[in-house]
Amino acid sequence: MVTMLGKAGCHLCEEALAVIARVCAETGARYEVRDLTTADDKEKEEYWDKIPVIFVDGKQHDFWRVNEQRLRAALLEERA
């Protein structure tokens, strides 16, 4: 499961989501997008300067930009 923590109007979030959607479609993984503006104060403090933040199975995987090959490898490794 891939989770992207971002916000509306963020061009990096839009780019990251395109990569996530493509890789998840290829690997059969699920993904969700969470809006950081509605997160609790602790998450906002920790992640605001890093958006988009990408998690794979609840563990931080990337931030700012998504490396497509690295994400694909992580998802395929998870299924192995």
From TrEMBL:
Pfam families: Glrx-like. This is Redoxin. It comes from Thermobifida fusca TM51.
